[in-house]
C-alpha cells in the first residue's frame, strides 16, 4: 500500500499481518470528523496484534476466506483525509456513478475556473523546467 493511501481491503496485503486487519480499523463506529483516532501506522500494529492473538481472515487449513458484508465508501469529490468522511455500507450496495472531472469543472463559477486554469498552467510550466 502506498504511504498516502487510506487503507482499504483492495489496497492492503491480506497476507501481511500488519495489513490483514488494518483496513477494518478505518472509520470505526461513532467516530465523527476523522477516519481514525490515532495515526494510521498505529493500526498496523493493532492488526499484527490481532493476527498474533490468533485472528485470521483465511482458514490456515483449507484457505477459505469469508467475504465481508460491509465496505468502506470514501467520498468522490471531497478530500477524505481532511473531512474524515467515509461510511461503511452493505458490500452489495452499488457504488454511485463516478463524477467526471469535466463535469466538476463545468459546474465551477467562471472566476474559479480561471483560477484553476492558471494553477494548472503554472504547474505545467514548473514540470517542464
From TrEMBL:
InterPro entries according to UniProt: Phage_gene29 (IPR021226)
Residue stretches spanning the membrane: 20-42
UniProt keywords, alphabetically: Membrane, Transmembrane, Transmembrane helix
Any matching Pfam family: Phage_gene29
Domain of life the protein comes from: Bacteria
Record-given protein name: DUF2744 domain-containing protein
